[in-house]
Design a protein that fits this description.
The chain is mainly alpha-helical. The protein has one domain. Helix content is 88%, strand content 0%. The protein has 3 helices and no strands. Helix 1 packs antiparallel against helix 2 and helix 2 packs antiparallel against helix 3. The chain starts with a helix and ends in a 5-residue tail after the last helix.
């Protein structure tokens, strides 16, 4: 039974890794800044899921603590990115580069 769980965890980790690479591609090639921010947020969420699965797979409790810290840091990073984007957009709006 343990081998079945190990195989399941491995398959899920591979699937999450592929999804992370696809999100990385979207973050690099994204047509707009909003799509890039969403892709970065999704990468953070997928990485968080991978850390949690590793915690189950390895039976290590400290990885759950690391996952919580990673979630908080990821949330703060997205908030900062949105704040910077909002500042740049408002600056362009004041210059008249984009319509209101």
């Amino acid at each position: 039974m343990a081998q079945a769980y190990h195989t399941l965890y491995t398959v899920v980790l591979v699937a999450l890794s592929v999804l992370t690479l696809l999100c990385l591609e979207r973050a690099v090639r994204g047509p707009g800044i909003a799509e890039r921010i969403i892709a970065i947020n999704m990468i953070c969420t997928l990485t968080l899921g991978m850390i949690c699965i590793l915690a189950l797979m390895l039976s290590e409790g400290y990885l759950a603590d690391i996952a919580l810290l990673y979630a908080m840091i990821g949330f703060l990073a997205i908030v900062v990115l949105c704040k910077v984007y909002l500042g740049v957009a408002m600056e362009k709006q004041e210059k008249g580069d984009i319509p209101k």
